[in-house]
Amino acid sequence: MTELMNNSRSVQRRRPTIKDIAARANVSSWTVSQVLRGQTGSAFSQATRDRIHAIAQEIDYRPNLAAVALNTSKTALVEVWVCTAIEYSPFSGWIFHTLQKVAAQHGYRCIAENIPMDQSWRDNDLSLQWPVDGIIAIDSGGPVRGHLKAHPNDTTPIVNMGAGSGTETDRVYIDLGPGYRAACQHLLEQNCRRVAYLGRLPEDVRWRAYEQVMTEAGRPVEVILANDDTTPCAYETFRNYVREHGAPDGLVCHNDSTALGAFGAACALGLSIPSDIAFVGCDGLPDTLYNASPLSTVQLDAQEYCELGWQMLLSRMEDPNLPKREWIVTPELVVRGSSQRLWKPSVIRERSRP
Q1: Least CB-packed of 23, 204, 260, 316 within 10 Å?
Q2: Does residue 284 lie in a domain region?
Q3: Is the pTM of this model over 0.85?
Q4: Which residue has better confidence, 135 or 150?
């Protein structure tokens, strides 16, 4: 009796298959396969399609990805490489989440591969552990070059994305220069006399834009170097710097996470924002709207950015012989309460939270 009950539970737990749907719908397994794969045409009536989809939903059918890959030579999987200097980046998480939603609309799933920025990836094989239909590489120019050199015969389509993307493959490049220059000029227009830069990479395009604007305005260049891009590091770095050197009255930050850390340190030191110090970040993270003074930022349209990257990869998967392409996204300065001292209608503004 116990053995019969165990067998019954085993059957109940068995994963539904195409054959189960076919038996209940009174059609062939081939018909079910074609319908669930979205094949169009007049071979199947709409009533048959509706019946198959209804049964699949009722019995909680989920395709076996390994079987699909074996039968079609496609996995419906895209690997997303994320190159960061830290274990978790809010910006990378935001972009990966947006890519997931865009890919899902086309029947694909994304899997993430975190690649350290410290170049330890050079000692690791980035060859794919599971076959995927394509790769989207976020700020991973170096790892992509290393992968292509190590695996010259790999034909997996790759799209580079980001301000740190390489030029060896198709890419969607984020040009931060114009928006960051606008951010620096905005602080000068707000009568900030001592504008500093807080960040980790002096050679970054943001640093070069800052240096250019300060030099053209005849203002001193003041760099506050942080060990990484995290909010806790920025908090400690900026707090210690202000205690030793005093506070600048304007601060442009490497990214929004850095700006949020410095913002918190300024508040802890009793500084008023923006009257004592005006802040501008970079990225446009959604959470920046909910500060006591919403953060001004050089804002990326993440939805547009991810849709462009996905369309580029999709077209490359469909036609591997397309010429190499580059699309450029240019984030814009959005002025909010963290930097708004004087009214000037020449830049984008958001005066209230959504």
Answers
A1: 23
A2: yes
A3: no
A4: 135
